[in-house]
UniProtKB/TrEMBL annotation:
CDD domains the UniProt entry points to: Ribosomal_L25_TL5_CTC (cd00495)
NCBIfam families per UniProt: bL25_bact_ctc
Single GO cellular component term: ribosome
Upper lineage: Bacteria, Bacillati, Bacillota, Bacilli, Bacillales
Gene name for this UniProt entry: rplY
Keywords assigned by UniProt, alphabetized: Ribonucleoprotein, Ribosomal protein, RNA-binding, rRNA-binding
Keyword check for Cytoplasm: no
Name of the protein in its database record: Large ribosomal subunit protein bL25
Function: This is one of the proteins that binds to the 5S RNA in the ribosome where it forms part of the central protuberance.
Description of how the protein assembles with itself and partners: Part of the 50S ribosomal subunit; part of the 5S rRNA/L5/L18/L25 subcomplex. Contacts the 5S rRNA. Binds to the 5S rRNA independently of L5 and L18.
């Protein structure tokens, strides 16, 4: 993934909570860019809709932006703050990166194919939605495809089983399960269901009797 200019940022003066509120009310998001290669952290604001679109499609992408007063720099999202109730983006931190140094980031996992186990009635369960990786910024993949075509009932794929693109190294435990095919639950007969119902009634009667004794 090469750096691409997808966000327009404006320099802002670090101000009060009231000024930050005005920025948000105008549809923009306050933020900061920091890191090696910048003279000092740069306070910025950017369009909220454009930022939201980037986060939906490529939240871990490398972005080349023209930082006012600092020139063009490759950056990546470092931290995102949302309102706990409205989930509105309140603030974003970007870190300036060196394209010639390896970084740690994450890549979305995408399931490819239809498994044997699913066709036999099993259920596919995606356990790991993103994979932590180490690579050069230019090599960050948009997604990591996981082919489940050969998986049968009860089988799974771990991080160590993944065929990663060249230059990509997983940083999590190789034994971590990424996706599994769960066996279908056995359907109970009417006799088994009646038995379970009778046991539940008996348990309820015992609970009521115990409560009555305590009240006495």
């Amino acid at each position: 993934m090469k750096a691409s200019a997808t966000l327009q940022v404006e320099r802002r003066v670090t101000g009060s909570r009231n000024e930050l509120r005005k920025i948000r009310e105008s549809g923009k998001v306050p933020g900061v860019i920091y890191g090696k290669g910048l003279g000092a952290p740069v306070s910025i604001s950017l369009d909220g809709k454009q930022l939201a679109a980037m986060l939906r499609s490529h939240p871990h992408s490398v972005i080349e932006v023209d930082v006012p007063g600092e020139g063009k720099h490759p950056i990546m999202m470092a931290e995102l703050q949302r309102d706990p109730i409205s989930h509105q983006i309140m603030h974003i931190d970007f870190q300036r990166i060196d394209m010639n140094e390896k970084i740690t980031t994450s890549a979305r996992i995408d399931i490819v194919g239809s498994s044997i186990g699913e066709r036999e009635g099993g259920m596919l369960q995606l356990i790991l939605h993103e994979l932590d990786i180490e690579c050069y910024p230019k090599d960050i993949p948009d997604v990591i495809d996981v082919d489940v075509s050969s998986l049968e009932l009860g089988e799974h794929i771990s991080i160590g089983d993944l065929k990663l693109p060249e230059g990509i190294k997983a940083t999590q435990d190789a034994e971590t399960v990424v996706v599994a095919i769960l066996a279908p639950q056995k359907e109970r007969t009417e006799e088994e269901l009646d038995h379970i119902h009778d046991e539940e009634l008996q348990n309820a009667k015992h609970r009521d009797a115990a409560v009555a004794v305590e009240k006495d």
